[in-house]
């Protein structure tokens, strides 16, 4: 397996792993929002949004591998 093939595999793994984190962050944002912790909920929601942006970059990297 070449280094680029390894990286391609890693990128796919990182995307899946990051997707799981996004779900977790969003779930916790909802939970703390229901507890009246609006500021904390907003922060966790922003973390989820930024993590989605990371996935966009991971996908760009993945698609740039020839």
Describe, in plain words, how this protein is organized in 3D.
This protein is mostly helical and 66 residues long. It has one domain. It is 89% helix and 0% strand. The chain is built from 2 helices and no strands. The chain has helices at residues 3-34, 38-64. α1 packs antiparallel against α2. The longest helix has 32 residues, at 3-34. The protein is elongated, with a radius of gyration of 15 Å. The mean pLDDT is 97.
In short:
Helix content is 89%, strand content 0%. With 66 residues, the chain is mostly helical.
The tally of helices reads 2
**Overall number of domains:** 1
Shape: elongated
Would you report the number of β strands?
A: 0
The share of residues in helices is over 70%
Give average pLDDT, whole number. Answer: 97
Measured distance between first and last alpha carbons? 14 Å
| Category from helices, strands and their pairing | mainly alpha
Order of helices and strands: HH
Strand content: under 5%
How would a textbook summarize the main sheet?
A: none
* Low-pLDDT residue spans: none
Instruction: Compute the CA-based radius of gyration.
Output: 15 Å
